[in-house]
Amino acid sequence: MYPDVSIVPLNGKTPRIHESAFIAPGCRIIGDVEIGPDVSIWYNCVLRGDVNFIRIGARTNIQDGSVIHVDSPAPTKPDGFPTIIGEDVLVGHLAMVHGCVIEDRGFVGLGAIVMSDAHIESDGMLAAGAMLTGGKRVLSRQLWGGRPAKYMRDLDDAAIADMQRGVQHYVRNGQAHKAAVLGTTEG
After folding, report:
1. Residue 19 burial (10 A CB sphere; 0-12, 13-18, 19+)
2. Does the keyword field hold Isomerase (predicted)?
3. Quick one: which of 20, 34, 83, 154 has the fewest CB in 10 Å?
């Protein structure tokens, strides 16, 4: 359906992509991956659900060049580390999201890294370039930054509203790109 997109079944699992989602050229989506309604996966992203699963909720966007992966079972975590990304999440360009949880309305900044067993709660934000190490948890309405990431401050209502405007922008922009890529007048 999409030009220059690889959808690769692996280990008996085929990626499931909602018909309203936008998958940009250059993307590679492998294995046990589920992409929800109005999601946008931007140019040259890799989503590899090979040793565990990836779930991406409605209206989330994964921006250009990002990598979403999972982690294998371990003695302390027999189920391993899937990557679960909620609804209305913003994931900035060139982010690395690996075996973690990002709840609804979470935010991962440009070039940030979220490592296995890390967690970003609803309305939590990881700043651009930050690295959230395993076992760390960004609480709701907190901003964390740095390498390794540490708590910086609480987010005010204006910051939360800006993130939600960003989500709506990416839904609209994704549909415009989808129409252009597919050569249609509708998204």
Report:
1. exposed
2. no
3. 154
Residue 54 CB: number of other CB atoms within 10 A? 25
Whole-prediction pTM? 0.96
Strand locations in 57-121 (E): 61-62, 67-69, 83-85, 90-91, 96-98, 101-102, 107-108, 113-114, 119-120
Dmax over CA atoms of the chain, in Å, equals 52
Was domain 6-182 assigned CATH 1.10.10.10?
no
> What is the Cα–Cα distance from 18 to 102, expressed in whole angstroms?
20
Q: What percent of the chain has pLDDT over 90?
A: 92
User: Collapsing DSSP states into helix, strand and coil, what is residue 131?
Assistant: strand
- What pLDDT, in 10s, does the model give residues 7-49? 999 999 999 999 999 999 999 999 999 999 999 999 999 999 9
* 20, 37 Cβ separation under 8 angstroms: yes
Q: How far apart are CA 177 and CA 56, in angstroms?
A: 19
DSSP state of 99: S
User: What are the beta bridge partners of residue 26?
Assistant: none
Distance CA 29, CA 25 (A): 11
Do residues 70 and 82 lie in contact, with contact meaning Cβ atoms separated by under 8 Å? Answer: yes
Any bridge partners for residue 138, and if so which? Answer: 120
Q: Which two tokens stand for residue 159?
A: 């910051």
